[in-house]
Amino acid sequence: MRVVLADDSTLLREGLVRLLAEEGHEVAAAVGDADQLIAVLERAAEAGTKPDAVVVDVRMPPTHTDEGLRAAVQIRERWPGVGVLVLSQYVERRYATELLTDDGEGVGYLLKDRVVQVDEFLDALERVGAGQAAFDPEVVRQLLTRTRRSDPLGTLTAREREVLAEMAQGHTNAAIAVRLHISQSAVEKHANAIFDKLGLIGTSGYSRRVLAVLRFLGT
């Protein structure tokens, strides 16, 4: 894949450049703030060399609040074919929820600690670059925990909550079956029960399903 990196930590940025290069990916640019990131995307769009994915930190100069998030949202609006993987030091529910108001395709949210787990980071990046969703299990867990007190999440069984958490991370039914050691038909049965209990019947498509569930979790 062709990737653009944006993080104000030189150490992390250069580490990711080396990691991705070793894995055979092309790092088209590595910058330290959101303005530079948008400028790189604008030049790439003009040249017809847009990246497959962007990795961006939530907090970057000058205020270190939400510059990266705002850049991510702008990229999704202006160049929807570019996948966006957002990195954050902590689970920041407001930021995760804002990202999830998108169409759910080619977007991900990982904690920075996940970067050191190379296989998981690369898997998330590749899924985002392929137009799929990839959300950190800890982000999903906290969203589930914070909303479990309110119905209708409280009506879900333990197994349905497990399936929901896997769906929220962006996994397909086939992948969920492998991860939970159950049949794919069982996953489909649990998924239908989840959507029925959450009032989400009628949604179609893998990404729409993930988006609908996560929008509910973010309320």
From TrEMBL:
Transmembrane segments: none annotated. Residues 2-127 form the Response regulatory domain. The modification 4-aspartylphosphate is found at residue 57. Residues 149-219 form the HTH luxR-type domain. InterPro entries: CheY-like_superfamily, NreC/VraR/RcsB-like_REC, Sig_transdc_resp-reg_C-effctor, Sig_transdc_resp-reg_receiver, Tscrpt_reg_LuxR_C, WalR-like. Keywords: DNA-binding, Phosphoprotein, Transcription, Transcription regulation. This is Response regulator transcription factor. It comes from Streptomyces sirii.
